[in-house]
Amino acid sequence: MTGLDDNWFTEIYAEESIAFSLRIRNKLHEETTPYQTISIYETETFGNLMAIDGCVMLSGRDNFLYHEMMAHPVLFTHRNPKRVAIIGGGDCGTLQEVLRHPDIEEVWQAEIDERVTRLSETWFPELCTANTDPRANFFFGDGIKWVQDTDPGYFDIIIVDSTDPVGPAEGLFTRDFYRDCFMALGESGLLVQQTESPLMDESKSIIRKAHEDMRGAGYEHTKTLLFPQPVYPTGWWSCTLAGKTTPPEYFREADAQEKPFPTRYYTADVHAAAMALPPFLQEMIGEDHPLGGEG
Amino acid sequence: MTGLDDNWFTEIYAEESIAFSLRIRNKLHEETTPYQTISIYETETFGNLMAIDGCVMLSGRDNFLYHEMMAHPVLFTHRNPKRVAIIGGGDCGTLQEVLRHPDIEEVWQAEIDERVTRLSETWFPELCTANTDPRANFFFGDGIKWVQDTDPGYFDIIIVDSTDPVGPAEGLFTRDFYRDCFMALGESGLLVQQTESPLMDESKSIIRKAHEDMRGAGYEHTKTLLFPQPVYPTGWWSCTLAGKTTPPEYFREADAQEKPFPTRYYTADVHAAAMALPPFLQEMIGEDHPLGGEG
Asked: What CATH number labels B63-285?
């Protein structure tokens, strides 16, 4: 019935009983690290593809949507960001977007699996152009422990660019981790985390739980932003921002309009648009989080 | 490699070498009409599914995204809409959304294949609640000829809710058809058409061609709106509005905020957000259409 032969890579998203497939030309590489199995394919139309444990991480064609939305909204929300930490993000695409901001002085990428970064340098060199930037710093190891060891108040922004909340990334979707980040952030610090698809069953909603746990960890403000991401399940994705004292509803719109670098998806208008949450999602997030809704 | 057995329905979107699959419980119905083969499945998590010639038309779970966005933006753009025509739209979901507007006096649904409507009444009754509304009128036959036979200036709004631009729907994506609609619309009339995924190769872009052909047919203003639609290829979809004299950038925002009916996706904020086009799409649509971009 499927008509898909061995020339297709398929990710089955079992919880929602859906699957997404890409036609491939070649498997370029595969290796099993202490953490996971990383596969690289050449696809017909989506450029190179990285999968981890069978789940699509990124394609050359559409990763700009995700990487731009993980970096620029939070950076244009903080009043004056200088120091940024990325937890995960081993493909270096988020790092590259962060370093497009000239005022950023120091970025740390804390990725558990160095092989993700090395394979990205080989197969996604277009994402790694900022890796030699003197402001870029790399830590390979446990991101949770690394955040705990950070000097209190050191970072302006922490970006949690992780895999799904199973396996190595599970601990990144917890109140304890959000509290560790809270300690590592300055007074006006902001956290942003990828929070999966908004079209999930309410009972398993990662978005709702993220709001609850972020508030529970002490952040005054939380806000979910939406964006398309065709290679991820349902094709519709989200990130959730948490501000210790800074409300993510208000961003430096004039600065975003005048940004000194090109983007393919992000603009000030797209940033504002990403905050418009549909009623079904406002309900899912819950009335007890007024700033998670339209407010 | 795919791991998908016979319990999955798969749509292969050959042009982009991608596929989307839904796990099914049963095939509920299948028939071949003079126009196409219509299949109805019960899926695990997306409710009932209608496919035509192997392409997903709608699922019970996520059709609200599409139907709300095909109806409400154009209705809240026209100053005072009374008469609406729907070309295609046989599942009656768009008709239902249109009839939520109390000021609408008359709606015609011109669908080529009556069996689509009859099967929707059986398998998607939740989309057909307005079919007995006295304002609802049904024509089953060739929508192109039906528009040509319409009294000039009769309709305020024409909604082209069609399948992909191949087979029966091909003639709905042409300058001639847009011109026929132009004649059937009043002075401040508006046309809206579903225009497929924004993440297509530039060379085959249906969105770009729609802008060109709509302008060529005499409409002063064109504007593309974006929205998610998980069961369609790439999960990201669009509709393009064309105003004879009415610019789609300006809608009745206060009326949309005060709308007297509930929605799950559409709000005034979501409407405004849907008009924020990313730079890559502005470029694809072309500089010669300033109102197709951010303007």
From this structure: 3.40.50.150
